[in-house]
Design brief:
The protein is built from 20 helices and twelve strands. The protein has two domains: 320 residues, ABC transporter transmembrane region fold (Up-down Bundle); 236 residues, Rossmann fold, CATH 3.40.50. By secondary structure, the protein is α/β, with parallel strands linked by helices. The protein has a six-stranded mixed beta sheet, with helices on both faces. Helix 18 links the parallel strand 9 and strand 10.
Amino acid sequence: MEEKIHLSDREQRNILFRLLSYTKPHKKLIGMAFIFLLLTTIGDIVLPILVKIFIDDYLTPGKLEFQPLLILGSTYMGIQIIKAILMFFQFVKFQELALKIIQQLRIDVFSKVQSLGLKYFDQTPAGSIVSRVTNDTEAIKDMFVTVIATFIQGGFLLSGIFIAMFILNIKLGLLCIIILPMLLFVMNLYRKLSSRFYLDMRERLSQLNAKLSESLSGMGIIQVFRQEKRLRAEFGMINDQHYEAGMKNLKIDGLLLRPAIDLIYVLALIIVLSYFGLTSLNHVIEIGVLYAFINYLDRFFEPVNQMMMRLSLYQQAIVAGSRVFKLLDESELAPAQKEENILAIEQGKIEFKDLSFSYNGKQDVLKSISFTAKPGETVALVGHTGSGKSSIINLLMRFYEYERGDIFIDGHSIRNFTKTELREKMGLVLQDPFLFFGTVKDNIRLHANDMLDEQVEEAARFVQAHTFIEKLDDGFDHKVVERGTTFSSGQRQLIAFARTIATNPKILVLDEATANIDTETEEAIQTALSKMRKGRTTIAIAHRLSTIQDADLILVLHQGEIVERGTHQELLALGGLYHKMFLLQNGVVESMDVVN
């Protein structure tokens, strides 16, 4: 998903104001940082004046009186020491401000990711999302740490220096003003040119993260099918594009940052020296004033150079901010529920009424689906890949929003239940269960603090998972690595069953829960499933028809439509699609077109 290649001035301003809005809760901290900043700036302005006084009032006339010089020198050193201390506190306060802002921004982004609908994750690589939460927010932190402090301090210092210049010599101060339009022109030109290159760099970095994430997730497949060379080439191509975008920006930096500013500095120096040179023909000039002006020019261009160098960080932060806010403004949210309702799922009766659904808004994957699952019944969904089985589960679990038709639970639209009620009363077991890093106990209770250890163990016993759990090192406190890769498929599935049954759901949703299980483990899982289904309304997707022969209702789907419905025996008697699938799975025929 490509990013736009340019941000307009208005968009950049809006992003900056939005980033600055995160400073509102930290007014006290900002006030303290600004006070320290103002005091250090005053110190920078006063120091050249002290040197000017020393040169004009004491050094040039030769009046080297001990006590005044001691006071002058002590004042100079005292200001330097106080300035160093204030700079330390200023640095700490701006760092603290930046960390607090980025902490909140990352929480906002992470919370937003949790609220997005699955459709967004279908369209966006995981690595790209990770890049926005980590790399982009880190770039924004740099802006708050260095850019804002530098620009504010630079603004204070430049204003103070100009005031001091005018106090020393009004005519020369007016002459020096002509350098301001030049500086503003260079800064504006740099900002416009660099923004597009930073957008390109950020997008390439996002693609690098996405490719890395994909490679790590699929490392087993990559090595088995010897795809290392191809992946290296693809990664290298994106890396080269990132390098090229970086080089373009470096060229802009090399031209418009230090060299251009140094050229303007030389021009300003020529103006000052020319003025004093011409003035000296008719009037005596004060060496201290000359020193002060030269010193102020140095001090003037030092913050200008710093501001110009920080412009690159500023542009990176603005580009990163645009990407972060694009995620925060994403409208592809998880389906909304009427959270103010107090409806409760009591019986678990499920009704689909004329439900049609499309993922892309063009082609329907479900067409007028209607069926009823009575309390305590098991309804099985069978059909070939792409027939719409998983889509029915996704809509029932409210992973996607639908517009045509409706789903009812206990006579109420599924939209009218709170999200909490749906998640508490509906249990989902997937084909490939996901285990989190932690312990077995943590994975069963999922950090529900009100669930006692006895309840966890009871859930494991109910699904017969305790048999292998008690043999593990530390039993229920056994450490689970990422995704539970040290467990077999059957063990992961049994832990997932225990996790689901621990919440005591009214409705059970099984998405090919036995598809990847070996024959020996399948017997234990089938026993667990039978116990779990008792007294619960169950919707089950199954590829193995042998696992759903006792279902109260079997729905046969083909191209998004229910083409057959009935019990196992009734469907066999029909001699239709289900009958052909049954024969094929039982090896009665070696090959047949089950679609026709």
